[in-house]
Design brief:
By secondary structure, the protein is mainly alpha-helical. It has a domain of 94 residues: Winged helix-like DNA-binding domain superfamily/Winged helix DNA-binding domain (Arc Repressor Mutant, subunit A, Orthogonal Bundle). The chain contains six helices and three strands; from the N terminus they run ααβααββαα. It has a three-stranded antiparallel β-sheet with strand order 1-3-2. A hairpin with a 2-residue loop joins strand 2 and strand 3. Helix 1 crosses helix 5 and helix 2 crosses helix 5. The two termini are 24 Å apart. 17% of the residues are buried.
């Protein structure tokens, strides 16, 4: 338990940065989810799974690596893989004790179609409001925060 006397409270400046960060962290995924559902019939999470597979060698990842990359529990990932597999967008296969997911050509085409609207929405919601200097500062700040969010092994 943290001693109330030793709590490092946020300064006014930190609070002024923290509250908008939380707002973005909560609202942006919902906005992207709404756009992808309307335009492509998939969730933002499904888009991220397809995207991770598309970037992997041979469009194939082990399920544990995919769950980590997608920041997912194995059960959530399994449910989504089943759903995407039913659409013909990926296949699952096993090699020994390891299980893999592989993006099909149909899945890649679906991702490509969804990506166009997704990128436009990301640009509209985020990058259209930032200067090149803002983007550089955002990248620098996030690169300092991201390592602390990684799951411990």
């Amino acid at each position: 338990m943290v001693d109330a006397g030793s709590t490092r409270w946020l300064s006014d400046e930190e609070m002024a940065a923290w509250l908008p960060l939380i707002h973005v962290a909560m609202r942006l995924p919902a906005k992207l989810d709404t756009q992808l559902r309307a335009d492509a019939g998939i969730t933002h999470y499904e888009f991220m799974v397809l995207s991770q597979l598309s970037q992997a060698p041979d469009r194939t990842l082990g399920l544990s690596a995919l769950a980590e990359a997608a920041n997912s529990s194995p059960s959530r990932l399994s449910h989504v893989l089943r759903k995407l597999g039913e659409r013909g967008w990926l296949v699952r296969h096993a090699e020994g004790r390891s299980a893999y997911a592989e993006l099909t050509d149909e899945g890649f085409a679906a991702l490509d179609g969804a990506a166009r609207g997704h990128v436009e929405e990301v640009r509209r919601l985020v990058f259209d409001h930032l200067t090149a200097r803002d983007v550089t500062a955002l990248r620098a700040a996030l690169s300092k925060i991201t390592p602390g969010l990684a799951d411990e092994a």
